[in-house]
Amino acid sequence: MSEVNVPVFCCWNDCIKDGTNGIYYEGSNYRMTTVKGKTKFNELLDHLYQVTGLDRKRSKFGIIGRYPTDIQAFRVKYKPLPVVDDTSLETMLEITTKHPYIKDIDLYLEVESTSVGVIDPATCSSPSDILGGSSKRQKTDIHVKLERETDRNSESDGVVHLVDSSTLNKDSSSGHVSKPCMSSLWLDDHEFRVALCFKDGDELKKAVDWCSLKGQQKCVGRETVKDEYIFECIRLKCKWSLGAARMKKHGLVEIIRYTGPHTCHPIELEDFKAEFEAYEIERAVRDNPTQTIAELKKWWKQKFGYVLENLNMRAVKDKAIKRVFGDWDQCFEDFPKLMSAFHSSNGLLVDWKYDLFPNPKFASFCGVFWAFQQSIEGFQHCRPLIVVDTKTLNGEYQLKLMVASGIDAANKSFPLAFAVTKEVSTDSWRWFLTGIREKVTQRKGLCLISSPHPDILAVINETGSQWQEPWAYHRFCLNHFCSQFSLVFPSLYLKSLVRRAGSTSQKEEFVSCMKDIAKSNPEARKWLDQFPQYQWALVHDNGRRYGIMEINAKALFALCKAFELADHVVTGSVLFLFDELRSHFDKSFSCSRISLNCGDVYAEPVMDKLDEFRTSSVTYIVMPVENNAFQVTTPSQKDEWIVRLSDCSCTCGEFQRCKFPCLHALAVCKKLKFNPLQYVDDCYTLERLNKTYAATFSPVPKISAWPEASGVPRLLPPVIPPPASSPTNVSSTKRETTSRAT
Length: 742
Hints:
Layout (H helix, E strand, L loop, with lengths): L4 E8 L2 E5 L2 E5 L3 E7 L4 H12 L6 E13 L4 E8 L2 H8 L1 H4 L6 E9 L13 H6 L32 H4 L12 E2 L13 E3 L2 H15 L3 E7 L2 E6 L7 E6 L6 E7 L9 H19 L5 H12 L5 H15 L3 H19 L2 E8 L5 E10 L1 H7 L5 E8 L7 E8 L5 E9 L4 H15 L5 E5 L3 H7 L11 E5 L1 H11 L3 H12 L3 H14 L1 H8 L3 H4 L16 H4 L13 H28 L6 H12 L5 E5 L3 E5 L6 E5 L4 E2 L3 H5 L4 H10 L13 H7 L21 E3 L20 E5 L1
Parallel strand pairs: 1-7, 8-9, 15-25, 16-19, 19-20
Antiparallel strand pairs: 1-4, 2-3, 5-6, 5-7, 9-13, 10-11, 11-12, 12-13, 14-15, 14-26, 15-18, 16-17, 17-18, 21-22, 22-23, 23-24
């Protein structure tokens, strides 16, 4: 049997990076060659020098193989395998035999100059960084580990950029250690090199500072542990870095790692401050991305002694989050861990929806439902009303955001529950609404306001649904209802009549509008009659919706602005939502507490109505009529209203709609010298408003301490259904839709 020839892609002098599927090469320097299956390591070296055209006398290289270690039906995960001898080379060359669907192998060369001990600046990340670092970090804190008692063998690992200074300082002929190479303080950037020595850390810092000044560059340094130093360029993408440590054999601070020169452009003086702020904040965000703007401002003041403006801090944090959590495919793997961190620190309730692959350790993302415990506690003090709506998100996968909101005492949207799904359907609405009922609230008599979409109606009308009376009362958003009407009957006149009929609180006006619709288009009237009038018409609502006829999308999605940005992946958007939620709770709680301390009792809607009555120039005439009712009129108008305080009603409709006295009821209370506040619904008290936002959010641990999500497989991006004409995926019949709750 003839010896197998293995196709080999040889890559060098550019970037080795770590991505979703493991390591990969980014650059343009590569060659395709063929290697025999029984090739020895030294033979491979000779062959690669010929392929790359590198000078053996002036350079050497370490070889990293791209080895498949995690093989699934839908993807292959690659890890770096250093090729250093015949055995490791044989392992790489056997890949195409063991895995026939892999047609070739990749070898990455880390080229290093042997003339001055300086690392090739074209390399943007070393294999040692990939083996030990995070795939998301563009800059890492490299802890320089040195053998201070005994010398290391510099030939033990040909791919690591930590160079043994003891070996470099040996005379090759005698084996004796030569005199250390001492530096001048007036170095140029290109004069830094491995084995260069300094009296102490301060002298090293002055040398780095001098080179930075001359080259119009900016570097930051820190002492990682005692007598070990790291310097990096302030520019995140620049590859310049230097590592040094005090060596026991001569007591001097010696450069043991150097990558240079700078690969960035000189910095303009006026741009430096902004770049420095961005660099430092990104370092803080990478460590703990859930810090609020206030926490970052406090940290900045303590560290640098001055206050950073809110606008600058928010903009820089936004950019940092996008850089740290900026990969759409990776974000689905990170998502469960992020939500697990919220669960362990703040009691977040989570429910996952995914499609399992044949290997149950992997699944494609379908959706995630979540609600913060603070919102669940606060909703107990809101009126019994929930508004739900959806929005299509920008971004690679066009995910859908589902939001449920309450209404607080100030008539503001109260964030209650959220979900991100790959599609909106009957199944996803059933899952979302069930999540609200099972995890968020079991209150009886809730009013649910939504669009009249058939998917929602199908879920509401299912047997056993807890969104039916008396557990809940379903109402339509009038805007959505009119829009759906216009799809069937595209007439602006008819649409205006439907809107008038739905929004009026006067029965006579409602009846008149319905007659006009029937007269203009009988089919339109028949279409309206298929829906109960109490679902879309205010006059038949019986006060369930508290006068809320439309879904205010701007207010509903106010805290979710990050989800609308195409350059924000879902994990980054959830982080910003958490930040906005904490800020919203803190601000609302503080404002309500101040009002309470000032002696106020009711929230703005009630106080505004009392002020309107007190400052009004209209004179109301109140006359008693039968059945404990009162007739209210004005001298200049023919209109009259009948007020019944016993059942909190007025023929204007506002009293029963809003559940606090209208102007006519206030006139009756004034006439009878009654306290009008006894007719105000308790949901409007400032005490209730304060309790709504009283729950506090706990700090979220740093990324390094985020716990793994229990029971959730490794999530991959959502599967896009194939077109009807394309063959069905063979695995589709084997998938299992599963839901897991954290």
